[in-house]
Design goal:
Length: 439
C-alpha cells in the first residue's frame, strides 16, 4: 500500500470563491487510505457471514423516507435534503439506507425465490444537521440488513456480526446494549402508560419533549437533556408490558448472544430514533477512548416491508457511521506510517525523461506503484519529491549515466547506491523491488 504525505504549505491566495458546502468533506488521499482499510475489513467480514452487497441509488422519492422513518421524526421533519422535480414531485437524498434496501428488495421481487436475503451496503447518507466533530451533512454508513425472517437466530446473528465486525476493526471493550420495543399487540399498552406518566410531568420536560408528547412520545425516553433524563428515571419500563411472544423472543436472543460470549446489558430506556423499529433494538457501546461511545446500532422492523407495499415479511439490521469508526480507531493503528512508495523515478534531461516515463508506465501496468515528476526539476528538487512520497528507492538517470548504459538505484533508507544496466531495465528493477519486499 502506498502513502501519500500531504504537505502543509502556505496557500497562495487565488480569490477562490467556489468552496465546498458546509458539512460536506473532501476525503483526501491520505485519509482515503484509512477509509479503504475500514471498507475492506467490512466487506471481508460480511462475505464471511454470507451477506451480499447491494447498491441502491442515493436519491429516492421523498415519500419512501417519510413513510418508513416516520413523519414526526427529527429526520423527516427537519433534516432531509429534498428537491422539487420539474413535475412538482419531491425527491430526497437518502438520510439512511434501510428504506432504499427494502424498496429494492420489494421492487425487484428478490423475496420470490428465497424470502431470506442478507444485504450490506456502504456509502454516503445526507442529513441537514448542525455540523460538529464526527457528525457531517454528508456522512457515510455501513449498513446491514437480514430480511425475510423473524427467527430469533436472525437477531442473534445480526448482533454477533456487529460485535465481530467491531473486534475485527480493532475496537475494544464492546458492550451490546439491548432492549425490546414490543410489537403491535403490546406496544400500545406501554404507550398508554407512558403517556399517562408524561402528562403528569409535562411542565418539567424540555421544549422538544413537550412537543413530542403528542407526536412521538417514545422518543422522549431518548432525550439527552439532563433535567429530562432525571425525570425519566421514574418512567414506566416497556419490558414490564411485553406480551408473551415478545418476552420469549427477547429471552432467546439474550441467551443466544450470551452463549456466543458477547457482553451485553439490558437497557430498558433504549429506543431508536426511527419509528419503524419493533421488538429487539440494540446499540454497540465501546469504552475505547475512556468515555462510553455508541459505535452503531439497529433493530428489528417487522411490518415495514408490508408498509412499503411488499409481502408481510420481517427484517432486522444495523448501521455504523464510518466517521465515528475513524475517530475510534485513530489511536490503535500503527502500520500506516510504515507504508512506502516502492520507487521514485528521477530523470535529468529529455532523453532520460523519455526512458523513465515509459518505465513508469510499464511498472504501473505491472501493479508496481511508482512516482515520476511531470515537471522538469533539478536533481535536488526531485530527490525531495521522492522523500515526500515516502519512496523506498530512487532510480536516477542523467546524461552521463545514459551514455554509459547505466542508471543508479538508491536505497532511500540505507543511502546505498548501485548501478543497474539499462538493458532489460524493467526486469532488473522489478527484481530489485521484489527482492526488497516493498510490495
Ligand atoms: Zn409483543
Ligand atoms: Zn427533553
Amino acid at each position: 500500500m502506498v502513502s501519500y504525505k500531504i504537505i502543509k504549505v502556505k496557500t497562495p491566495d487565488f480569490n477562490m470563491d467556489i468552496k465546498r458546502i458546509k458539512g460536506m468533506n473532501d476525503i483526501l488521499p491520505d485519509e482515503a487510505i484509512k477509509w479503504r482499510r475500514i471498507e475492506d475489513i467490512c466487506r471481508k467480514v460480511f462475505m464471511g457471514f454470507g451477506y451480499n452487497e447491494i447498491r441502491p441509488p442515493v436519491i429516492e422519492k421523498t415519500e419512501l423516507f417519510a413513510r418508513s422513518i416516520g413523519e414526526s421524526t427529527d429526520i423527516v421533519e427537519k433534516e432531509m435534503y429534498t428537491l422539487t422535480t420539474s413535475k412538482g414531485g419531491h425527491i430526497t437524498l437518502r438520510p439512511e439506507a434501510t428504506a432504499s434496501i427494502l424498496r429494492a428488495y420489494i421492487e425487484n421481487s428478490l423475496y420470490v425465490q428465497n424470502p431470506v436475503q442478507k444485504f450490506f451496503t456502504i456509502g454516503p447518507m445526507f442529513r441537514h444537521e448542525r455540523p460538529q466533530k464526527g457528525r457531517y451533512r454528508q456522512f457515510h454508513q455501513v449498513d446491514v440488513e437480514l430480511l425475510g425472517t423473524d427467527s430469533p437466530y436472525a437477531d442473534i446473528e445480526i448482533i454477533s456480526l456487529l460485535d465481530y465486525l467491531l473486534i475485527q476493526l480493532g475496537i475494544k471493550d464492546i458492550t451490546i446494549q439491548i432492549n425490546s420495543l414490543g410489537c403491535k399487540e403490546c406496544r400500545p399498552v406501554f404507550q398508554k402508560s407512558l403517556l399517562n406518566f408524561l402528562q403528569g410531568v409535562n411542565k418539567e420536560l424540555c421544549q422538544d419533549c413537550r412537543r413530542r408528547i403528542n407526536t412521538n412520545p417514545l422518543r422522549i425516553l431518548d432525550c439527552k437533556v439532563p433535567s429530562c433524563k432525571k425525570i425519566l428515571i421514574n418512567a414506566p419500563v416497556i419490558l414490564d408490558d411485553l406480551c408473551k411472544s415478545c418476552n420469549d423472543h427477547f429471552n432467546r436472543v439474550k441467551d443466544g448472544i450470551g452463549a456466543l460470549g458477547i457482553a451485553y446489558k439490558v437497557i430498558p430506556g433504549l429506543v431508536r430514533g426511527l419509528d419503524y423499529y419493533t421488538g429487539i433494538a440494540f446499540e454497540a457501546i465501546t469504552d475505547n477512548l475512556g468515555a462510553q461511545n455508541a459505535v452503531g446500532g439497529g433493530g428489528r422492523y417487522n411490518g415495514l416491508i408490508r408498509e412499503l407495499g411488499g409481502p408481510d415479511l420481517s427484517g432486522i439490521g444495523f448501521a455504523l457511521g464510518i466517521e465515528r469508526l475513524l475517530l475510534l480507531t485513530e489511536n490503535n493503528r500503527g502500520e500506516d506510517g510504515d507504508v512506502l512508495l516502492p520507487l521514485y523515478l528521477i530523470a535529468l534531461g529529455e532523453k532520460a525523461r523519455e526512458l523513465f516515463f515509459n518505465l513508469s508506465q510499464r511498472l504501473a501496468r505491472a501493479s508496481i506503484p511508482n512516482g515520476f515528476s511531470f515537471l522538469t526539476k533539478s536533481l535536488k528538487a526531485q530527490m525531495k519529491l521522492a522523500d515526500r512520497n515516502n519512496a523506498r528507492f530512487a532510480l536516477i538517470a542523467g546524461e552521463d549515466e545514459l551514455s554509459d548504459g547505466l542508471v543508479i538505484l538508491r536505497d532511500m533508507q540505507t543511502k546505498f547506491q548501485k548501478q543497474i544496466p539499462i538493458e532489460n531495465l524493467f526486469e532488473n528493477i522489478k527484481n530489485e523491488i521484489m527482492e526488497a519486499e516493498v510490495i
